[in-house]
Write a structure and sequence with these properties.
The complex is a heterodimer of chains A (478) and B (112). Chain A has 478 residues and is mainly α. Helix content of chain A is 65%, strand content 2%. Chain A has 16 helices and three strands. In chain B, α1 runs antiparallel to α2. The relative contact order of chain B is 0.32. The chains are: A mainly alpha (478), B alpha+beta (112). Chains A and B meet through α11 and α12 of A and β3 and β4 of B.
Chain lengths: 478, 112
């Protein structure tokens, strides 16, 4: 009997504030549920709801835990699915089409295997280290209190950008899981056609632990150094793209060039695959960017339209620049421009205005074209699929550009105490820390792996192609 | 007996086949090949990496005929495959020592 009463009370407590909190944030009585942070890190334990259970669930009641809105929850699960679509098959096909036919399956295998691997690691310790409270180390990393997702139930909630609005914590865990996975998967592009599969898996796990988790914590978690410094990274320009771009660059340099690079023709084996992949990336990126709003609101709408406009502008800019400089507008150029635009708008998505997004995208399109041609040639590294040229350079343009175009004078949403120079310095600090951190961690890990298990396949295997040499199958048996 | 090998532009294959059928050639073998001659290749550009593609796709036709048919065969191929532009291809003629039809064991001109 007592149990029944308790559960009835619990139901009431859970339901009624859900209706009011979600509907109207202006109601003065809703201050009871305090959710401090901007980012989704504070977590309301279900205990709070139980404490409130016996009382009548009147709106004026104190300490009623906020309940996730169904719309927000649905949007976040959809966004999570969209980001998964970016990885498998988006990134896999985008990259796969760019390699030679003999290495097609190796790229597809690497991307999918990394997605599986990081998913597990994220649940085991990644989430806790990324979004936990690390105490004295909290500026850089979380703790292990949620190892194996300990204590997180279907009733646990995670905060959003709005006080008193929460989403189910498990949904937040899943959403963030996809970000971790895509970041590591992006690195594949710099190492493609010559990396040893086992070495890549080991690197993926270690780099995820020592570079992805700290950078994520620093940028997105309460108490993280860059978060507290006011660094703006809406959807992961720094955390995902610069981070991965640098790792890929370092990997390409440590691994060395592919056999025959610069002498033999290494044209992409299937640009239609690359076009499909780029398109899936674009579609999936709405989950990435608009989903990073964490609520289905106008803010998500802003990120949504910016994800169309910046991308379109970058695609056009790349295409036109290539047309003028090289004589022909290419499919690969257009697809590359599209991805460069997506990368650049990532940190800016919910912060800049639509016109700012167009300008930002156009800049990224042209500069990334230079990144994969002029810069790459000048420095002489073999970043097989241009992860640095597109994600690294595009990420840096996006991060700095966010500091500029967030300005209300340029149509951006603005932030408290905004001053353009100061914000750009803060953004540049974030970029610099990420470059150094990811650069050092990547270099040490690649070197360690190279010295112990070996990073690269044998020359014979490389000539044969990784599909048959590493995986014992071939992509096309026509 | 003669063995005629012709390298032609791929889109001319049907015309050549029709022309040869019209003069009584009863069989031929076709292979897709690549090669280069005086016709220039083209360049391909992938994100700044430029590749010169020298080898152009062509079609190779092989036909075994009786010696008396040779002139007409050459004439037919020449006419059907001609566009007047560089890259129309070449015709090679060699003598053919022996032909055997596998099914019946016939040999020589009877097997053609």
């Amino acid at each position: 009997m007592k149990k029944l009463f308790a559960s009835l009370g619990l139901m009431l407590a859970l339901m009624s504030p859900g209706l009011t909190v979600a509907q109207d944030a202006t109601a003065p009585v809703e201050d009871a549920a305090v959710v401090e942070t901007m980012d989704a890190v504070a977590v309301e334990a279900p205990v709070a709801a139980e404490e409130a259970a016996p009382v009548e669930a009147a709106p004026a009641e104190e300490a009623a835990a906020p309940v996730p809105d169904k719309g927000d929850t649905a949007w976040m699960m959809l966004s999570t699915l969209l980001v998964i679509l970016m990885i498998i098959p988006g990134v896999a096909l985008f990259y796969g089409g760019l390699v030679r036919a003999k290495n097609m399956l190796s790229v597809l295998t690497q991307v999918m295997a990394i997605f599986c691997l990081i998913s597990i690691l994220w649940a085991v310790y990644g989430y806790s280290l990324a979004f936990g409270d690390g105490g004295s180390l909290n500026w850089a990393i979380g703790d292990l209190s949620k190892l194996f997702l300990a204590g997180i139930t279907a009733d646990s909630t995670a905060a959003t950008f709005t006080d008193g609005v929460v989403i189910p914590e498990l949904v937040f865990v899943a959403f963030q899981l996809t970000f971790a996975a895509i970041t590591v998967a992006l690195i594949v592009g710099g190492l493609a056609e010559r990396v040893k599969f086992s070495a890549l898996m080991v690197f993926g796990a270690l780099w995820f632990t020592f570079s992805y988790l700290p950078i994520t914590h620093m940028v997105w978690a309460t108490g993280g150094y860059l978060f507290e410094a006011g660094d703006l990274d809406f959807a992961g320009g720094t955390v995902v793209h610069i981070n991965a771009g640098i790792a890929a660059l370092v990997g390409a340099i440590v691994l060395g060039k592919r056999i025959g690079y610069g002498r033999d023709a290494m044209p992409p084996h299937s640009l239609p695959m690359t076009m499909i992949g780029a398109s899936l990336l674009w579609v999936g990126w709405f989950g990435f960017n608009a989903g990073s709003n964490l609520e289905a609101t106008g803010g998500a709408g802003l990120a949504f339209i910016n994800t169309i406009l910046a991308t379109a502008a970058a695609g056009m800019a790349w295409m036109l620049a290539e047309w003028m400089l090289r004589g022909k507008p290419s499919m690969l150029g257009l697809a590359s421009g599209v991805v460069a635009g997506l990368v650049a708008v990532t940190p800016a998505a919910g912060l800049v205005g639509p016109m700012g997004a167009i300008v930002l995208g156009a800049i990224a399109g042209v500069v990334c074209l230079w990144g994969v041609t002029g810069l790459k040639k000048a420095l002489g590294y073999d970043d097989s699929l241009d992860v640095f040229g597109i994600h690294g350079i595009g990420g840096i343009i996006g991060a700095i550009g966010t500091g500029i175009f967030v300005s209300p004078a340029l149509g951006g949403v603005g932030v408290d105490d905004y001053a353009m120079a100061g914000q750009v310095v803060t953004q540049a600090t974030g970029v610099l820390i990420t470059i150094v951190w990811s650069g050092v961690v990547s270099f040490v890990l690649f070197k360690l792996i190279d010295m112990t298990m070996g990073l690269r396949v044998t020359e014979e295997q490389e000539r044969e192609g990784l599909d048959t040499a590493s995986h014992g199958e071939r992509a096309y048996n026509l | 007996m003669k063995f005629v090998t012709a390298i032609i532009k791929p889109f001319k294959l049907d015309e050549v086949r029709e022309a040869l059928s019209a003069i009584g050639v009863t069989g031929l073998t076709v292979t897709e090949v690549k090669g280069f001659g005086r016709q220039k290749g083209h360049t391909e550009l992938y994100r700044g990496a430029e590749y010169v593609v020298d080898f152009l796709p062509k079609v190779k036709i092989e036909v075994a005929i009786k010696a008396e048919l040779l002139e007409r065969v050459i004439e037919s191929i020449e006419k059907a495959a001609n566009t007047g532009k560089i890259g129309d291809g070449k015709i090679f003629v060699t003598s053919l020592e022996q032909v055997v039809r596998i099914r019946t064991g016939e040999s020589g001109p009877d097997a053609l």
